[in-house]
Amino acid sequence: DPAIDSAFVRRWLSLATSAIEHKSSWLTELDSAIGDADHGTNMQRGFAAASAAVEREPSNTPGEVLTHVGRQLISSVGGAAGPLYGTLLRRAGKALGDQPAVTPEELCVALRSGVDSVAQLGRSERGDKTMLDSLYPAVEAMEFALSSGSGLLAALAAARTAADEGAAATVPILARRGRASYLGERSIGHQDPGATSAALLIAAFAEAAEA
Ligand code: ADP
Ligand code: MG
Ligand code: MG
């Protein structure tokens, strides 16, 4: 398994940025069904800005890179997802402290506290048809895998599968938070855009571990 250092987080950012770019029109299409058709462009703008900013600055710890990406998302993405993802990554980065490399368990604890901060900021919980519906299953799958003796690679692969399943499972849910909640019953039958982008971000972690 690779080290979880600043190079690992940079690899994640680069894989996440290209996944978001490739899936941008799909994310916007999902958001056009139950939102305002901007999720793909919001995410693309945010990750492009974050990638450019991180390339300019020599951040030497994984925590610093995550914090930096979080700050960029908050300042460059209008819309709900920017501050929510930004808060997640800033909190996770802060939790990693200034260590040059961290353990899989430390990464997992940091991601858990980041996801908890999304729930806090969004006043949302699992089952509301939001990004939390793929983020919580991902974190839990990672926790379970690590506590069963898996290493980083296997734990992130499990997180990726759980996030994909979580995103797909938002289809029959009635939205209780965000713009989709304005639709009430009409939000049923559509996959949540944020849960979908969250699954892409988790998949990028799994790919960063494979590289
Ligand atoms: P906006 O809705 O402002 O246009 P985006 O389209 O970029 O923002 O993001 C919408 C996504 O943000 C939703 O699909 C949902 O997953 C997520 N989201 C919205 N509100 C909340 C919330 N209160 N808690 C968690 N996630 C939320
Ligand atoms: Mg939107
Ligand atoms: Mg919007």
Can you give me a brief rundown of this structure?
Helix content is 70%, strand content 2%. The protein has 211 residues and is an all-alpha fold. It has one domain (4-210): Alpha Horseshoe (Serine Threonine Protein Phosphatase 5, Tetratricopeptide repeat), CATH 1.25.40.
What features would you describe in this structure?
This is Dihydroxyacetone kinase subunit DhaL. Keywords: Kinase, Transferase. InterPro entries: DhaK_L_YcgS, DhaL_dom, DhaL_dom_sf, Dihydroxyacetone_Kinase. This protein is an all-alpha fold. It has one domain: Alpha Horseshoe (Serine Threonine Protein Phosphatase 5, Tetratricopeptide repeat). It is built from 8 helices and 2 strands; from the N terminus they run E-H-H-H-H-E-H-H-H-H. It has a two-stranded antiparallel ribbon. Helix 6 runs parallel beside helix 8. It is globular and about 45 Å long. The structure holds adenosine-5'-diphosphate and magnesium ion (MG) (2 copies). The site of one magnesium ion has 7 residues, from loops. The site of one magnesium ion (MG) has 3 residues, from loops.
